[in-house]
């Protein structure tokens, strides 16, 4: 169904209102059916402890040679994807709204679990701006992960897979379009965790790249190899999992958000869940399927979005939200390409 279809009597505003009403009604039905959902703060806290415990436990099992590196990396990436959903909910104050200590404690923990990001306190302002200007050149949050850049251009992949280098490479274009944009300000907001993360990642890649080529002819100091053992361990338990998590998330979110030709909520996002996206969704907690729901009803924790998804998808598609629009990969995410 297209918004331009003359047979459709509802206005865009009416369609949006109908989508919102249907999603909220389904949420209320579920909350009435499952009384445990009233404990929203503690559900969020329990999920945080589960994901944190999963990452720490996996790291310990890897350290003691119980599980291989690949299994530790994959499991940690899945647990880290939960922490991203929690951070997003915390940005919208879904947990411990009236308890600053608990709220900020959760914000800190989920940041530590995802150290390749800016601080969640800084991201809150960036994310609120995203909701106001989604789909336009002012949407810093999505542009920082590649939204609107043509896929045939190498820059798209740099931005999606390396947030630091991508931002530095794009800083001139971002400064031109976004009032008061400052690359230094974003770097400061990422300090110290993201700086340590990218520093460790680059050292790991450079050393092992050098070692693969010239290692046989090189004698490394003992202190250096001991330091690299620490870096290697951190790559397995934290750095590589978050590279996979963020790469999957950035690929999905930059594709399911539109850029250009966006004039209303219906045009901001699509539902993007083709079967072959399953590996990506494993590491970004089904983001392409459920995030569009959030644009219509902001005040829902992520697990509620999962629960209402079936009813939400039906009403969204019936009222003009695109579904599995793979054309977005060929037209730099513009809404009106189809």
Automatic annotation (TrEMBL):
Superkingdom to which the source organism belongs: Bacteria
GO BP field: lipid metabolic process
The Fatty acid desaturase domain, residue ranges: 68-325
Keywords, alphabetical: Membrane, Transmembrane, Transmembrane helix
TM region(s), chain numbering: 42-61, 105-122, 149-169, 181-203, 223-244
Name of protein: Fatty acid desaturase domain-containing protein
């Amino acid at each position: 169904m297209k918004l331009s279809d003359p047979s459709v009597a509802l206005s865009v505003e009416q369609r949006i209102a109908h989508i919102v009403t249907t999603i909220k009604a389904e949420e209320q039905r579920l909350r009435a059916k499952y009384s445990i959902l009233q404990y929203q703060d503690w559900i969020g806290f329990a999920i945080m402890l589960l994901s944190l415990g999963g990452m720490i436990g996996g790291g310990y099992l890897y350290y003691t040679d119980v599980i291989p590196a690949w299994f530790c990396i994959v499991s940690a990436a899945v647990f880290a994807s939960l922490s991203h959903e929690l951070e997003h909910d915390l940005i919208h104050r879904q947990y411990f709204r009236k308890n600053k200590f608990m709220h900020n404690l959760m914000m800190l923990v989920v940041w530590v679990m995802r150290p390749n990001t800016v601080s969640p306190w800084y991201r809150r302002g960036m994310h609120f701006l995203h909701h106001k200007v989604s789909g336009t050149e002012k949407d810093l949050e999505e542009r920082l992960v590649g939204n609107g850049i043509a896929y045939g251009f190498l820059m798209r992949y740099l931005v999606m897979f390396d947030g630091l280098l991508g931002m530095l490479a794009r800083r001139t274009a971002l400064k031109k379009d976004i009032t008061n944009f400052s690359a230094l300000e974003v770097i400061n907001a990422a300090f110290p965790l993201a700086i340590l993360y990218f520093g460790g990642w680059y050292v790991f890649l450079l050393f092992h790249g050098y070692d693969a080529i010239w290692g046989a002819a090189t004698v490394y100091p003992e202190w250096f190899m001991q330091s690299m053992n620490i870096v290697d361990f951190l790559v397995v338990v934290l750095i590589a999992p978050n590279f996979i998590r963020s790469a999957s998330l950035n690929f999905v979110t930059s594709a399911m958000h539109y850029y250009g030709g966006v004039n209303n909520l219906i045009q901001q996002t699509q539902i993007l869940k083709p079967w072959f996206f399953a590996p990506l969704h494993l590491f970004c907690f089904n983001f392409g399927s459920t995030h569009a729901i959030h644009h219509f009803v902001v005040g829902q924790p992520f697990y509620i979005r999962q629960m209402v998804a079936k009813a939400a998808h039906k009403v969204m598609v019936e009222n003009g939200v695109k579904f599995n629009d793979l054309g977005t990969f060929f037209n730099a995410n513009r809404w009106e390409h189809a």
